[in-house]
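pinned: reference chain
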Amino acid sequence: MQGPLGCRGAVPPSAIGWRTCCCGGSGSACSKVEFVDRSVALAGKAFVSFFPFVIVVAAFLPDGTRTSIITALAARLGLHGDALSLVQGSFASSDDVRRATGLFGLVLTIFFASSFTTSLQRVYIRAWRRPHRSGIDVYWHGVTWLAVIMVSTALQGALRSLFDSGLGVAVFVLLSLLITAGVWTFTAWWLLLGDVRPRVLIPTGVITSLAVTPSHSRRPCGCRRW
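pinned: its structure tokens
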């Protein structure tokens, strides 16, 4: 049975609560979702598991794909100066990373990176009030999401290099908006295991795209040549 806002079941998501919280209401929905706690947990997991995953996996990819990932990642995070040089150095040592990691290390890196997807999935499940699930199906969804993020990051990095001047910048921003909205709509639907209709999740993808694409459209100093 479909719920009132596209969920399977009788319990609706907390979209109304989010609106009340953001408009200065009681904030009870935000406390239920544990907004601050989940945000801090996600940031920590991204630092210790997701970003190392990107560096290690990129070392096993072709040079052109790796360069696209570096370009997109540096632009998204707004890196410049010493921080940008540090990231460039991390990706430039791809041969050393491959030798030190090996295929077994690559598998372990993917396994540890799944802790980030698990935390992200819990945020969505809590926000949409879906029942918690466990098992190989949940883990498989997380690994698949990591692959989708890597592909979309490489694609946007390649588009940035292709449309990097004049009217091309406007084309890139438009394409980046569409890609990012699609990725984050898919993210919510995929990590919720299909419990919520995709059309209901489209606004969340669009809002996320509008929030992150402006930072992605800026080219950090020093990123024109790697």
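why pinned: Residues 9-27, 221-226 have pLDDT under 50 and may be disordered. The radius of gyration is 19 Å.
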